[in-house]
Structure formats: C-alpha cells, structure tokens
Amino acid sequence: MRARDGLALAGGLGVAGLLVAAFLRMPAVGGTVHVYRDLVLPAAQHANTPNLVSSVNFDLRALDTLGEETIVAAAVVGVLTLLPPRRKALPPERGYVLPTVRFTGYLLLPVAVVLGLDVVLHGHLTPGGGFQGGVVLATGWHLLYLAGSHSALQRLRPLTWLEHTEAAATGLYVVTGLAGLLAAGSFLANFLPRGSFGSLVSAGTVPLLSVFVGMEVAAGVVVLLSRFLAHGLGHAR
Amino acid sequence: MTAVCYGLAGWLLLIGCGGIVRSRHLVHTVVSLSVAQSGTYVLLLAIGYQKGAGAPIVGQRQQVPVVDPTVQALTLTDIVVSATITALLLALTVQISRRHGTVDPDELRALRG
User: What ipTM does the predicted assembly reach?
Assistant: First the structure.
C-alpha cells in the first residue's frame, strides 16, 4: 500500500513539473490572438449559422462529430452487452415519495420536454445543439421515475422503438454525409440552401444533423438508463 | 488569471489521478476519473478565453470579438466522451460486483473466469 502511494506521489510530482514547464511557455489567458476563431467566424457567417460552436460541430468539423456520435452509439451497445435484460420482472418496490417531490416531478416534466426540444431545434441559432438537448430530453423523461411512478415510466418508454431510433439516427447522419458527397463533391458538405440569417430553417445541414444527433442521444441515454434502473432496483448488495 | 486557470487545470488532473490511486470503491474510482478529465475542460476553455469578448453567438455583421468557439466545441466532445466512458465503467462495476462480490479494487486479486 505505502509503496504504491509513494510511487504515485513521485509520478504525480513528475507530471506536475512537466505541466508547470509547459504552462510557463503557453500564451497568457485572455489574449487577443485566436487563429481558429478568426477562421470560424467568417465561415459561419457565410453559412448563416449564428452559433459558432454548432457551426464547428455540424458543418466545419462534422466528420469529428460523426466519430463522437459513433462513440455514444458504441457505449450504449457496450452497456447493453454488459447488462443483459433481466429474465423475470422484479416485484414492485413499496416506497414512499413525498407529495411535493411527486408534484414537482409532474410539473417539471412538460417544461423539461419543451426545453429539450427547443435546445435541439434551435441549436444553430442559440446556445445548444443535439447533444445538450438530447440529454435534457432523456433526463426529463426520467422525471416520471423521480415522481415515483416507475410503472408509468415503463409504459411511456417504448424501448424497442428507442433502440431502432438510435440506430436510425446514427445511420441518417451518414446518409446526410453521403448526400453531400453526391451533391457537392465532399463527404458531409453543407449542400442545402442556407436560408436567411437567424431563421429556424437556415444554415443548411446544421439543424438537420443537430436533430439527428439529438434523437440519437435522447434515445441512447433512455435505453442506457433503463438497463441501469433494471439492474439497480432491488439488487443492492 | 493565467496562473489560476492553468493551475486549476493541472490540480484537477492530479487530484483526480490521486483519487484513482487511493480508491477503495470502484464507483469512487469512476468519479475520480471524471474529476481528472474535468481538468481538460478548464484548460481548453482557458485557452479560448479572451478578456472582454462575448459568447460565440454572433450577428450577421458582428464586430464585437467573441471567445474561440473551436475549443468550446472540443470541450463539448470531451464532456460527451467522459459521460459515455462513465456509463461503460459503471456497467462494468455492476458486473464486477455481481461476479466477484466486492467493489474494492484491492480485493480483486486476479481476473477470474
């Protein structure tokens, strides 16, 4: 035990020394030189995308986002493999949920769903995008569980369809990329009309790809959490 | 400002690694990994920051400078990867707990079939 801690301390001190040496040669925080910013800004304004982060994610570096999306899909597949579905249903647990918690859960459920849709759909205009909105949607869905209604969650959670949705959304991202290859000559090219600056349907393929990612993340997280809930309930060791 | 940002990033990385080394519970190990990874968020955002600049949401002919959106997009990627890895590791923890009957890394002496 002590030998391991000492070894880790020595290694940590070495890494700390290297970090200090590296940080001393880095530019000061808050400076005005940002080369990538100066390249992204005119490109995003030309493509009518006010949200520069979404422009980077779904237009300029859309190929990286394809990889990122594939990581999410792979992680969901991995969890589904590690936690196989349970054969017999667990007996319903008798628990007590405070009425205020129940009320707040049902009150916030529609708010969370509307907020998640808003964050996904306006990803190219305002802060947000597919990843953030998808997580809001999936966690909003589980307010049903927090409100103490596990049976309602099971009824309003079509897991088979969600698994198909996740796979289809991941595939549609690639299909959009191939359409860009055919229409504009490069994979994931922004080939759709750019529309007018700041309107809902604008920025070409950016909102389309954002919606696909939102569907994939929302469905993936719900499927993932369903396995954790099935294995966690009544199985505390 | 510079020292605080870079120092915080390095501190989070090292304290997270220290947590992994000293961990007595696998869930604690996973959370420590998340702490170590959040050091990279601070580092990326510090690199892209510009004093007095706005958020990277722009108008059509905006002249006001904005912070670097590229590192913010990288931070988003980083968070997504961190969340998926956390999910996978927690699923592994559930299986280890079931098969070996313990979640203390020191009691897992060997990989048994």
Answer: 0.82
Beta-bridge mates of residue A212: none
B14 to chain A, any CB pair closer than 8 A? The answer is yes
In the predicted structure, residue A115 carries a pLDDT above the cut 90? yes
- The values of phi and psi at residue A80, to 5°, are -65, -35
Is B6 in the A-facing interface, judged by CB distances under 8 Å?
A: yes
Residues in B touching A74 (Cβ below 8 Å): 84
Question: Using an 8 Å Cβ cutoff, are B13 and B33 in contact?
Answer: no
In the numeric block, which tokens belong to residue A228? 């954790």
pLDDT above 90 covers what percent of chain A? 22
Closest chain B residue to A16, measured at CA = B10
Cα-based distances in Å from B22 to A9, A129, B9, B104, B109:
11, 38, 20, 11, 16
Taking chain B (113 residues) in consecutive chunks of 10 residues, what is each chunk's mean pLDDT? 90 93 90 94 91 84 84 91 91 84 77 55
| Contact predicate A29/B50, CB 8 Å | no
Please give the single-letter amino acid code of residue A235.
Answer: H
Task: Supply the mean pLDDT for chain A.
Answer: 85
HEC secondary structure over A147-208: CCCHHHHHHCCCHHHHHHHHHHHHHHHHHHHHHHHHHHCCCCCCCCCCCCCCCCCCCCHHHH
